[in-house]
Design brief:
The protein is an alpha/beta fold and 331 residues long. The protein folds into two domains: 133 residues, ornithine cyclodeaminase, domain 1; 168 residues, Rossmann fold. The chain contains twelve helices and 16 strands.
């Protein structure tokens, strides 16, 4: 029995966004029902290299399917300048839960981008106004692309405003999407007035003010994934219906981590977890709601759900490179 090696191109080709969005929603539901296992993300800090490693294991029983895996991911900010490598790289090991056989080893970087976009789409579907047609993006890096790709699957997006200090990155983003959307460069304030706003920056001081945001805007706060990161003004979080992906992770390293540890934000300010909305324990957007926020840190269950989608299609389409990792003589 062979293990399938899937590179970035294979992951991209075998990730159908509508199916991925459904798989991510299934994963949130399974986690909320107690049908998933997700140990805390563990960190290995490497200050001598200005970087770290993170391990993210999970198992999901979604009813129609179950899956297990672990993602090994790094964050090394100096990589591009020193080595010509991405700041973030990931490797996903996807295993058969029944017998533990490693079914696939796949690029986790592309997988992460796809599943992060899909998670924002799930939250947007439950929290944004139904007739949303405009989307703002703060940050024109790689994650901005999958934010738009995923969210446009569940809302009829027509107008897109992209804001970033890097004019070349903004131009590249516009070039990639101007045949599908009315997309233009704009200020943070202009982006924040859209029906939907996704923030995908690594900043540690808030760059989106309360005054800038539309009264019925839904915000996907996607950039904060480590202690100290903070994109949105505290007043936004306090005024909004605030939904998180996981309490432990968001209070440690999500958008709410700074105001939470400073005592500005408390448990009472958190409306609930996205899984609670997905399974119907609490309501999503209601007619009374104004501003809504989804604080996403990225969960291992999302990686496993995405790997499941990729593997199933890759196997069907005979993609990837099969190799004998374990050895033909099993003992």
């Amino acid at each position: 029995m062979d293990t399938l090696l899937l590179n970035r191109e294979a992951v991209d080709e075998n990730t159908q966004m509508p199916e991925l969005i459904q798989a991510i929603e299934d994963a949130f539901a399974a986690y909320e029902r107690g049908d998933a296992q997700m140990p805390a993300k563990s960190y290995i800090d490497l200050p001598q290299y200005n970087g770290d490693f993170r391990s993210m294991p999970a198992y999901i029983d979604a009813g129609d399917w179950d899956a297990a895996g672990i993602k090994w991911v790094n964050v090394h900010p100096d990589n591009r300048d020193k080595f010509g490598l991405p700041t973030v790289m990931g490797t996903m090991v996807y295993s058969d839960p029944e017998n533990a056989f490693p079914l696939a080893i796949m690029d986790g970087t592309e997988l992460t981008m796809k599943r992060t976009g899909a998670a924002a789409a799930v939250a947007t579907d439950h929290l944004a106004i139904e007739d949303a047609t405009s989307m703002g993006l703060v940050g024109a890096g790689v994650q901005s692309y999958t934010q738009l790709e995923a969210i446009s699957q569940i809302r009829d997006i027509e107008t897109v405003v992209i804001s970033d200090l890097d004019e070349e990155a903004v131009a590249a983003f516009i070039d990639a999407f101007d045949d599908r959307f009315d997309v233009r460069a704009g200020s943070i304030e202009e982006a924040a007035q859209c029906d939907i706003l996704s923030t995908v920056t690594p900043v540690e001081s808030p760059i989106v003010s309360r005054e800038a945001v539309g009264e019925h805007t839904h915000i996907n706060a996607m950039g904060a994934d480590a202690e100290g990161k903070h994109e949105l003004a505290d007043e936004i979080l306090l005024d909004a219906k605030l939904v998180i992906d996981d309490y432990d992770q968001t209070t440690h390293s999500g958008e709410i981590n700074v105001p939470f540890h400073e005592g500005v934000l408390t448990d009472e300010d958190i409306y609930g977890q996205i899984g609670e909305i997905v399974v119907g324990k609490i309501e999503g957007r209601t007619e009374e709601d104004g501003l809504t926020v989804f604080d996403s840190t990225g969960l291992a269950i999302q990686d496993v759900a995405a790997a499941h989608v990729v593997y199933e299609h890759a196997d069907e389409n005979d993609n990837g490179y099969p190799f004998d990792l374990i050895g033909t003589a099993l003992h």
